[in-house]
Amino acid sequence: CASAEDCGGSDCVFLGPCLMVQEAVVEDNVVRDNVAERFGGGIFGFAEAPFETGGARVVASGNTVTGNVASDGYGGGIFVQSRAVRGTTEALVQGNVVEDNEAVYAGSELGHGGGIGAMSLTWDFGGRSSVLITENTIEGNTAGYMGGGVRAEAGSFYGSPWSFYYSYGTDTMRVSANAITSNGAFDGGGVSAWMGAMAAYSYYSPVTQNLVVGQNTISENAADRFGGGIEAFLQNGGWYYSYPQTGALQVAENEISDNTAGEGGGGLFGWNYVSWYGNPEDVPFEVSGNTIGGNTAGSFAGGAFLFSDADENYSIVDFHHNLLLANAAHDPEENDAVGGGALLAAGSWYGYPSGSSISFGHNTVAGNSADLGAGGVEIESMVASEGGGWAEVDLRNSIVADSAGWGIGGPVPGAEGAWTLGGAPDLQVNVLYSDVFDNTQGAIERTLVGVLQTEGLIEQDPLLDGDGVPSVCSPTTDAGDPADDYSAEPEPNGRRVNQGHLGATEDAVTTLPDITGDLRITGADLIEITTAFGATDGAVRWNAAADLDRDGDIDGDDLAYVAAQWGTDCR
């Protein structure tokens, strides 16, 4: 391809024009019962491009890959690596059936990716590497260590213990639109996604690293330890001249259901670790738009386990617009598991005097249970015992309802918890503009009172249906932070954001078009509309309450809002 126009939809459009592209394709095969000593029990693909004008692409598509083994290896069914050394490389794993493969752990750093293992790396300035794993059926695979279904490694990664291959260019790893079912591993039963956001000597060359796990169905997977559905780990770091650096690790819009973890994070285990000179604002850790339901864990965090951990600088985990529904933390022997919906842990694992925070906003946590403590959201901190560190959890615009246990709780700040080792009690917990209702032990556990700030807190029935969606009569409508952006919500939106996982989105529940203020939509509201119909702001017949969309004009739109809710009674 000499130019973008020449590509015409051909394969080279993925790598860009003006590249000499070499391609290897493994397509529509049955690959079964093979063994590799290290990488790729069934299929092995490696794309490398050493020069600025070079491009390489490997493709595995439409294959049935079953019963293969990587013994002491990586990628029991399929292994691909994209490595750009100044050039541009890509690996595509699409539309395969990957079943009953195994990556064996034999005491090495491997045993990853029972079904699919993938690595992406840019090794020199200006390189571009991309891996896409999409539309595969991944079922019944096992890994001795990490990633029963998929192991996806991007950015910088371990070359040997405490030694990294650093990134120097643009690196993207995507695991999207797959069906990942009934896989197992020590950590990350369904998916293990690791990204090292670390660069060295990159002062004159921008570094961009992205890892996305999105729009997958992840169900009935199991981990012996952490992350029954998904294990996601980001190491934010750097060395020498390591900026500018951009990108993100994102876990977004997945259906994560009925997974189990022996210890923590039945649905999801997410850990942002900031080391050396890492800057979490440059490479954020974001979990958003997921449905996490029916998952279980044996010690803590039936739904989601989030750890914000910093040695240097500070760390942030941003968890927003997620639905955590009917998850459970249960220890059948000791009956002391905590955090049915979520465990939020902020601190420093190694006790450094740094800062850690978790932003938990616009989430719905409903119908979760735990043996002890919080059935909804458990909060724990672990900061430097010598002082100087800080930890903060900001729970805002959220619904925490119908938990077996406390709605929000945790140990005395700084004390040992289910996950944290304790430390100085320098923790701030903010519960703001949220609804905490009908939790069997109460709204907020008294152990947090000394570090707690509340504002805009309500304790009213959010009127959720079986899918966690509030009714139009819910008190959580227009009850979010008045300073937050409501513009994405459909009209009429009351000019204030809703609480819960649908708040501030196009799927938000609309405001009740109640012009008369009697909490029902009747002919009285219709009369108010028709009397003022056609009036604009400042006119004699103007009625501000009838201008439901606040556009300064009482018109057919306002009438349609009333008609859509005709007969609704919220008394």
Written account of the structure:
With 571 residues, the chain is mainly β. Helix content is 4%, strand content 42%. It is built from three helices and 48 strands. The strands form four sheets. The protein has a 21-stranded parallel β-sheet that branches. Strand 17 and strand 18 form a beta hairpin. Helix 2 packs antiparallel against helix 3. The longest helix has 10 residues, at 523-532.
Outline the low-pLDDT stretches: none
Strand content: 35-45%
**Alpha-carbon distance between the termini?**
67 Å
- State the helical fraction: under 10%
Return Rg in Å: 26 Å
The number of helical segments is: 3
Q: Please summarize the sheet with the most strands.
A: 21 strands, parallel
Protein structure class: mainly beta
Mean pLDDT: 91
Question: Count of DSSP E strands?
Answer: 48
Which term fits the overall shape? globular
Produce the secondary structure layout.
Layout: H1 4-7, E1 20-27, E2 30-32, E3 35-36, E4 43-49, E5 54-61, E6 64-66, E7 69-70, E8 78-84, E9 88-94, E10 97-99, E11 102-103, E12 116-122, E13 128-134, E14 137-139, E15 142-146, E16 150-155, E17 157-160, E18 163-165, E19 170-176, E20 179-181, E21 184-187, E22 191-197, E23 207-214, E24 217-219, E25 222-223, E26 230-236, E27 245-252, E28 255-257, E29 260-261, E30 268-274, E31 285-288, E32 291-293, E33 296-297, E34 304-310, E35 314-320, E36 323-325, E37 328-329, E38 342-347, E39 355-361, E40 364-366, E41 369-382, E42 390-396, E43 399-401, E44 404-409, E45 427-432, E46 435-437, E47 442-444, E48 452-455, H2 523-532, H3 556-564
Parallel strand pairs: 1-5, 2-6, 3-7, 4-8, 5-9, 6-10, 7-11, 8-12, 9-13, 10-14, 11-15, 12-16, 13-19, 14-20, 15-21, 16-22, 19-23, 20-24, 21-25, 22-26, 23-27, 24-28, 25-29, 26-30, 27-31, 28-32, 29-33, 30-34, 31-35, 32-36, 33-37, 34-38, 35-39, 36-40, 37-41, 38-41, 39-42, 40-43, 41-44, 42-45, ...
Antiparallel strand pairs: 17-18
Helix pairs in contact: 2-3
